Amino acid sequence: ARRQSRLVELELARVCDLGSNDTRYMTISHLGHLIRVGDTVLGYDLANCASTFDEHDLDRINKRRAISDVVVVRKLYSATDTE
Length: 83
Description:
two-stranded antiparallel ribbon
């Protein structure tokens, strides 16, 4: 069976930020067919990572909004999930 994907706009928060500063990140993911409200996902926080881009590249990326602040990779399932 071939898996389908569906684009979805997500509002994410890091676990370490909950209750302290409530910083939220908006991103788009192809995992809309799997993710529901309240789910835990794994991803890369590109807004707070070290990069090898020079200032010229960063200016172009930020101007075009070419890269999201967070890239979602997968949904984290608990042992009790049946999906």
